[in-house]
Amino acid sequence: MEAKSSHQPKFPDRFPELPLRLANLPEFPNFFMIRDDLLPLGFGTKWRKAFGIQENAKEKAVKEILLWGAVHGNYLASFSTIFRSLGFFVTTIGYSKDPHLKTYNERLVQSHSHSFHCYANRKLALEAFVQMSSRFAGLVLPEFGVHPNQILGLKQLWSNLETKIQSLLKDSEYKTSPNEPQAILVLEIGSGVSFLSAYDYFRNSQVRVQGVMIGEKKDSWLSRTKKLQMKLGLQPVPIPEENVMEVEGKLPSSYLTIGETERNQKENPYQEAQKGMGFGKGQNHYKDWIFEFYQKNEIILESMYSAKTLFHFLKIQNERMVYDSGIPIFYLHQGGQIQHLDLVFPKTRVLP
Predict the structure, then answer these.
(1) Which of 82, 265, 270, 320 is a good FRET partner for 130, with 20 to 30 A between their CA atoms?
(2) Does an H or E element contain 65, and which?
């Protein structure tokens, strides 16, 4: 399937300096959000990863790229759009188990892929990807785009954050003891690239990097970190278990009717969350809280990653006073909210 587009993007001639934006939440004076969700189209940290990969492609004079993954996921939507805008000829292999499901991410993938092929399941898509990659002349990226040069773009972020933390500690009342971290950096573990990059950068500093598991058990992921570190060109060092946490599967009963809407009270929206909060599960349970959070802070969360993590840190952990030490916490909002705008904006009728 050939996708059509009238735009002719220009290939940037240098590695861009992406801004570091911080937001402090009035209710939580020690909590700061790193607003990567404000990067274009809400693609967030994926811009940094893609620009790093672009540097590698420029060195090899490569102008074609082969991608594959879930057609409704953030990865394929962002990378197909970004690399198309950077001047690549984009070939995409996707998969979707539901042929009737229509999402904004799917729209982005189709409209920004020069050549697009979609399969009914992951196995068929992987077979097609392996077959095509064996004869593909350009840059071939595995699922989730894991590539050593992703680290190049992320290092820029960690360096800027380190400078910001030092400035904040110098000019504020934050006081920590020698045995405590100066700051805590919180981010979800999806593919694991961002977390491993951050841990590698800060592991000999006083910034504690705290990963939040989304979609996989901690033990399972930790058993594979060495292999992933080597793929990324990082030193394969063990990750302490205490640096990786699983969001609680069972929520306290006091949260079962958050928002106190009639629907929540009637349907008990958190009941499935008590069985576990795995990847892609329990997303509807956070709808009202996402709306409430947006009304207070004008920050859009999405239900798969950011809402789960922030609900845990700002509601559960805060009320238990686990982080009452005064140590500043920095949460990396990695974007991905573009497909979930209906959670905060009312739907309007499109006129013919």
Answers:
(1) 82
(2) strand 64-70
